[in-house]
Write a structure and sequence with these properties.
disordered N terminus; mainly alpha; flat
């Protein structure tokens, strides 16, 4: 509520200092500190900050662009890496089994024959991997690989128990390598089931 400028008698209202109410109000307004105007440089900086904020908001609100699919070269390199990670260890496993079987029966190791069999196993495994690996995650393919692994394992036990050393030298390394490939392609529980069935067959043959 604004203070009265006159009193009840019609004369200007006077405060304790002897000034009228209107004069004291004017002095109060004059005593209030005035806000200094912003300098041109400060105004330019503020405008620049506001522009940068608006630009950053515009960038944040922009939807992310979808990633481009990998090119032919990238897909080829990934496929080559996949084949290398599977085939090179299996081919090396085949060569190691060859050496172990030859050592077990006291046969002389011929390096040319060893490398020749290793190269053949690499090519055969590459063909099998190219045909069966793309759909190996399906249930039907898993069942097929499971039955194949069980048959290979049981036949490997039969060869090692009943055949002569020459048959074991020729058949044990490739069969064991195929069994290792099947174990890689199978899910862990199916692989465990196949190994359990082969172990049970081995126990039955020994008994």
């Amino acid at each position: 509520m604004k203070p009265a400028l006159v009193d009840a008698t019609g004369r200007p209202a006077v405060n304790g200092d002897g000034l009228s109410a209107g004069a004291s109000r004017i002095e109060e307004l004059d005593a209030e500190p005035a806000v200094p105007p912003a300098s041109p440089r400060k105004s330019a900086i503020q405008r620049r900050r506001g522009a940068s904020k608006s630009v950053s908001f515009a960038v944040e609100d922009k939807p992310a662009e979808p990633e481009a699919p990998p090119g032919l070269f990238a897909e080829s390199m990934l496929l080559l890496l996949d084949y290398t990670m599977v085939l090179v260890p299996l081919a090396s496993f085949h060569v190691v089994l060859d050496v172990l079987v030859y050592r077990q029966y006291g046969q002389e190791i011929v390096l040319n024959e060893l490398l020749h069999r290793g190269a053949i196993s690499f090519l055969v495994l590459g063909l099998i991997h190219a045909v069966l690996h793309p759909g190996h995650a399906g249930v039907g393919m898993q069942m097929l690989i499971l039955l194949t692994a069980m048959m290979i394992g049981m036949y490997l036990v039969h060869v090692c128990q009943t055949q002569d050393y020459f048959a074991v030298m020729k058949q044990a390394p490739p069969l064991a390598t195929l069994l290792g490939w099947a174990a890689i392609e199978l899910e862990p529980y199916w692989s465990t089931l196949a190994m359990a069935c082969v172990g049970f067959w081995y126990w039955c043959v020994r008994v």
